[in-house]
Amino acid sequence: MSGISFDISGVDEVVISGKSFKRIPNLRFLKVFKSRDDGNDRVHIPEETEFPRRLRLLYWEAYPCKSLPPTFQPQYLVELYMPSSQLEKLWEGTQVGVCTLNICMNNVHV
Fold first, then answer.
1. Quick one: CA dihedral 14, 8, 82, 99, positive or negative?
2. Residues 6+ apart with CB under 8 A from 22
3. What separation in angstroms does the CA of 86 have from each of 33, 67, 96?
4. Domain span including residue 101
5. pLDDT tens digits along 21-70
6. How many domains does the chain have?
7. Could you tell me how far CA 106 lies from the centroid of its own chain?
8. For residues 104 and 47, what is the distance between their CA atoms, to the nearest angstrom?
């Protein structure tokens, strides 16, 4: 599987396991979005979530955490789109090998 597009509109609650993405190491495209605003932002994702290393596009509307997981490796990431998210910072320290990255989000320090 190389991509996931998940519309969370109308879903009461989404709980994502910290190891959910570890089972799909070839994932290149992850999009979590709302096709309509229903006021529901109940997506739970643990801080220790491991995103796939080769992820190229991360689109997550209303991402619920204040930062990406400490294990997040953006070396292959080309686009990061996180509108209406709770992000305050992307990651701690300097990331080695981060190329030009298209970033769209609210009030985040890169």
1. positive
2. 50, 52
3. 14, 8, 24
4. 1-110
5. 888 989 999 999 988 876 666 788 888 888 998 999 999 988 888 888 88
6. 1
7. 14
8. 21
